[in-house]
Amino acid sequence: MDQPPPPHRRTESLRERKKAQTRDALLAAGMRLFAARGFAAVTVAEIAAEADVAPRTFHRYFPDKVELLFAGDDELRETMITALDQTAVDADPVVVIRVVLAAVAKRLGDQHAELVIRERLISETPALRDRDLAKRAGMEELVAERLAVRFGVNVDYLQAQWWAGVAFATFAAGYRAWLTQGGDLGAHLESALELLEHGVRRAT
Q: What residues does the HTH tetR-type domain cover (predicted)?
């Protein structure tokens, strides 16, 4: 018969759930205000008030409102790297990209409305565009490092960098189509990947 967790474990679990709920409330509050008034017009104090917490509580979770907007990027990066690392070392690069894109679709597929708002805010705000480009470049570099390990070469070797760039270009094409057209993110990413496969076959 299963034993209940000890009291300190139950307390820890309750604390973690409370922290997750507060973080989610701040994210939702920020996106509501950004969508209604634009990014620049919203303050941290207003986001905290909308989430019914103190401004100091906001800063326990996010250093500023920019990082709140990009909060999902850390989870996305972990999703991509986990999926990449779980594929066979000798797998074809296109197969690896397919596995990674499927994991990304599972992570983001139910967030269409929120991501449409986020992309609009980024396009309207030069500072956010710069941050977005920097974060994407960092993700691409991390993927290149993982691929370099697979290929057994230095990270600056052309093959690793090229496949990382291909992976992100494929993602960007499918992602943009999904933002514009809606529907199933996985299907859009698969369509972009099929175009890549067609190009690879023609080249070989």
A: 20-80
42, 126: one domain: no
How far is residue 144's CA from residue 197's CA, in Å, rounded to a whole number?
20
Gap between the terminal Cα atoms of the chain: 60
pLDDT tens column, 109-138: 999 999 999 999 999 999 999 999 999 999
Domain that holds residue 112: 70-198
Flag whether the pTM goes above 0.90.
Answer: no
Give the 3-state secondary structure of residue 175: helix
Total count of domains within the chain:
2
Contact predicate 99/69, CB 8 Å: no
Residue type, 188: H
Residue 203 in domain: no
